[in-house]
Design goal:
Elements: H1 30-37, H2 42-54, H3 57-74, H4 81-102, H5 104-131, H6 142-182, H7 184-209, H8 214-229, H9 239-258, H10 260-278, H11 280-288, H12 296-318, H13 320-336, H14 340-348, H15 362-365, H16 370-382, H17 386-395, H18 399-420, H19 445-486, H20 495-502, H21 504-509, H22 514-529, H23 532-547, H24 558-567, H25 575-584, H26 592-620, H27 626-669
Length: 670
């Protein structure tokens, strides 16, 4: 397309300040605009106005502006260098824009092919350099290989799904689904008995190697009986989601705790998460100075929450979180038979908090039954958010067990909810529901990152304020109890000591050895009545004491530490009641009354769900006291070093005495 410049100009073009920064995309105007720009007489103008009226409203202003702009250029002087330069620039710009727009698909493919070729060259070079030990720091290339294979697999799946997804669904999946429906009366027994047989086999093998693990099985049965006793409608319990939830939880636990590959994968993920979160120290050091670790919680732990919140928001913007959550929700929906909204919220709770996960199903909250609302609440109480998970990792809590607990608690929460508050109404939610895709809330990934960091301010302030308030309250309660206890010869009476003895039998049933049961009971009480942050901070003291062989406090066994880690992994504490109601209430104001009626039951369900998860972990974890052995070796080395030092001191002292004696004798002889 070109401008018609045959009309003689009258005066040179002088661009006004308002003209600066105007970008005109001629390629978007179509053939109609070209026809209008090709003539300037009255008839053409009338025709162009008719064309403009027939076009969409969104392009009318653009076309009218182009007609006016072209007419202005046509009346300017041909001898003006500035007008000629501007005209050429506009023509070149419009041509390039038109070319890019018309060939955007091809250009995108070319860029992707170039990137793929570059990465292939890089990947080949990495393998060769690793094989010949070319680099001074020869890193393990296995993670790069695994990452490349995973990305290739996702690309293949995406390509096959986009090109052949409908054919696969019609010719393969639908016939298989019909065949399953026709033979479901037989297949359902196979589906039920095979997992149960596998679970029994795993339990038998584990108990054979470690008979004391059988105590955790008694604890698991005890908690299920308690839930059934306190059930709102014990005769209306649908056992499919209950059994399915516990089976799925046990399968997750077996894959992670009993399968070496699964444990190594989660250990690798946990270690990489620890390294990733360590980058927070760079920002914290810049803001607070090099001595920021002097204030370990305020300046090292809380910044981790800010960083992780930023990352999570970016992943949501890219749609990665939605894809992962939807796949986990699909597995739980098929296994448990729960509605899509319940499963989606439970899966979301693995990664985000108790008030963020319900946002995924916000349109359905107002029409949910009480049982479905109860399931949403229990899922929030029984799990933790990714931001605080990062904070617990910074405490020194084993990240692989925190990740495992987060995954196990999701199906367990649904099972506990359906046992504690069974469904007695007809659900208004279909078996499938759409999930919002990423990319719509923010204009680009940088805005998403900034928003995530800003949104974490409220969470960080809430954590700090709660810790200040509850620790002060705990100190006051302990001082009051000690004052009353002093009159009956119990000057050390405290909240922890009371819970120490009250909860010892329950903790012992979870698989904790009797010597550690009281201390783990204190941790569970702190988590339930105060805050899980307080409990995990106390647990980190026990872990550090074992690792450093500090006998100033009681040293827990590694098995007791693991069980405590699972038992504390949840937001089920009294302060979370207000957070839950405050978060869900604005999303469904008409259901606030129902929420307030069932929130206490949901809190109880969240507490029991965490204890059940801890019991399952206690059933499968076989203690290898390598840390205790290393601690004993360290203590032995210290003792040996002390003895050697003592011998050296004695020899040195005696040698000095002998030398003095020789000098004295020689002097006397002289």
């Amino acid at each position: 397309m070109s401008f018609n410049t045959s009309t003689p100009s009258k005066k040179p073009l002088t661009p006004s300040p308002d003209d600066s920064g105007v970008s005109i995309q001629l390629s978007e105007l179509g053939e109609e605009s070209e026809k209008m720009l090709g003539s300037t007489d009255t008839d053409s103008a009338c025709k162009s106005n008719e064309v403009i009226m027939d076009m969409e409203d969104g392009k009318q202003e653009q076309i009218q502006f182009m007609v006016k702009f072209h007419n202005d250029l046509s009346t300017e002087s041909e001898g003006s260098d500035s007008s000629g330069t501007l005209t050429c620039f506009i023509v070149v710009h419009s041509t390039m824009t038109s070319f890019i727009t018309n060939n955007s698909s091809r250009l995108k493919k070319i860029i992707l092919v170039l990137l793929a070729v570059l990465y292939l060259a890089y990947f080949k070079a990495a393998l060769v350099f690793h094989a010949i030990h070319f680099c001074p720091d020869n890193h393990n290339v296995l993670p790069l290989i695994v990452l490349t294979c995973v990305v290739l697999l996702l690309i293949v799946i995406s390509y096959v799904s986009s090109r052949f997804g409908e054919d696969i669904r019609e010719k393969l999946m639908l016939p298989v689904a019909r065949s399953i429906d026709n033979h479901w009366n037989v297949l359902k027994w196979v589906v039920m008995l095979l997992p149960l047989a596998g679970i029994v086999a795993v339990i038998v093998i584990t108990v054979k190697d470690s008979p004391k693990n059988l105590a955790s099985l008694a604890g698991l049965a005890f908690f299920i009986i308690i839930l059934f006793i306190f059930s709102s409608h014990p005769t209306r319990v649908n056992w499919r989601p209950v059994i399915g939830g516990f089976v799925l939880q046990f399968c997750f636990a077996t894959l992670i705790l009993k399968w070496d590959v699964g444990y190594k994968v989660f250990s690798f993920l946990g270690e990489e998460a620890r390294k990733f979160l360590a980058y927070t120290d760079v920002g914290a050091e810049f803001v607070f100075g090099k001595k920021f670790t002097d204030h370990i919680f305020a300046m090292k732990v809380l910044p981790v929450v800010v960083f992780f919140s930023c990352v999570i928001t970016m992943l949501y913007h890219l749609g990665i979180m939605q894809a992962v959550i939807s796949k986990i929700a699909f597995v739980m929906r098929c296994t448990l038979g729960t509605t899509a909204a319940e499963s989606l919220c439970a899966a979301g709770n693995i990664f985000v908090g108790q008030t963020e996960a319900p946002i995924l199903i916000r349109p359905f909250l107002s029409v949910m039954t009480k049982s479905e609302l109860h399931a949403v609440m229990v899922g929030g109480f029984a799990t933790i958010a990714g931001g605080v998970l990062a904070a617990y990792i910074s405490f020194g809590i084993p990240p692989e067990h925190l990740l495992c607990a987060s995954v196990m608690n999701a199906p367990c929460a649904l099972a506990v909810s359906k046992l504690l508050y069974p469904e007695t109404e007809k659900s208004k939610i279909s078996k499938t529901c759409a999930m919002t895709k990423g990319g719509g809330q923010y204009r680009n990934i940088l805005e998403a990152a900034a928003a995530g960091a800003s949104q974490s301010i409220a969470l960080v302030a809430n954590i700090a304020a709660n810790l200040i308030a509850f620790l002060a309250l705990l100190a006051f309660v302990n001082a009051t109890l000690a004052w009353f206890g002093a009159f009956v010869c119990l000057p050390n009476l405290s909240f922890e000591s009371i819970c120490h003895y009250l909860l010892m039998p329950v903790v012992y049933l979870m698989g904790v050895r009797w010597e550690d049961a009281g201390h783990v009971a204190e941790l569970i009480a702190l988590k339930t009545f105060l805050n899980e942050f307080v409990a995990y901070e106390k647990l980190s003291e026990f872990i550090n004491a074992r690792l450093t062989c500090d006998d100033s406090i009681h040293i827990l066994s590694p098995r007791s530490e693991i069980i405590a880690t699972y038992a504390l992994c949840g937001f089920s504490n009294l302060s979370s009641i207000g957070i839950m109601l405050g978060g869900l209430g604005p999303m469904a104001p008409q259901r606030v009354g129902d929420m307030a009626q069932i929130v206490v039951s949901a809190l109880f369900g969240g507490v029991v769900a965490c204890l059940i998860t801890a019991s399952v972990a206690g059933l499968l974890v076989v203690e290898v006291p390598s840390d205790l052995v290393s601690c004993m070796v360290a203590m032995g080395n210290d003792t040996l070093a002390g003895n050697v030092s003592l011998v050296v001191d004695v020899v040195t002292q005696n040698a000095s005495n002998v030398a003095d004696l020789i000098v004295t004798t020689a002097s006397a002889a002289v």
